[in-house]
Fold Phosphatase.
Amino acid sequence: MLGTGALRAHLLAARLAGTVATSREVSLRSYRLFAARDPRVTIGLDPERTWKQHDLIALMADRCGVSDDPRHTSGPDVIDPERTLAALDAFAERLAEAARNRSPVLLGTGHPHRLIGFYAALADALSAAGCVVLTPAHGDRVDITTRFGLRTYNLDYVRGVALVRAPGVPGAGRGAGVHTHSPLPVRAALASAADVGGPLPELVVGDHGWVCGAGQLGFEAIGLGDTDDPALFVGEAEGRVSVVVPLDDAVRSDYYRPLTRYVLNRACLSQ
């Protein structure tokens, strides 16, 4: 079993925690945009209270371990590995509860190139434990506004994990999974599940809009969040997101494998 000490060392070596690649400038920009309720940063969450930038800095210092000094405006950001480890334990506990109850679950990611393996392993383990891993709206079209204008994507599932793909070029097959923060994919999935009268998820697992979009609609949601993702941590602070694990969500995909082993062991789920 991967111990806490070994995982802490891995978090620091892989820069999942400690000094991370996300810059302070990028994080502060996200806090400013969230304070202005920019939908690109609220990603499906409608905050209950007014969050000023200084409030968000204080929140992210508490939840992630970033500097609480507003005069610190440049350089790499920092995540406290102890906060990451504590949140991973809470994350695993919630997965274990879902497994015990054989709850229907929905998993989705806006980081398919980095995190599909992490979530797919969770989906496999939850399915083996008797949970129904839902795949609603498979193949449906989702129109998402990007910086390049309105783009059409297709909702797809890989090993039980939802993602969106750009439509394939004729004769070239499907397009690749794309990075998105949008809550529209999870809204489409949940609406489709409700429309067909199938089971609704008792737990949504993911990142970005998958977590915030589900939590805003009243579904229990847990996931991963970086220092420039204040919406997830605001959702947690306001009670609409159950657990957010602070870590860099864009490192090499194989760097998440020790986290997978740790979470599954803590949740007493087979790998």
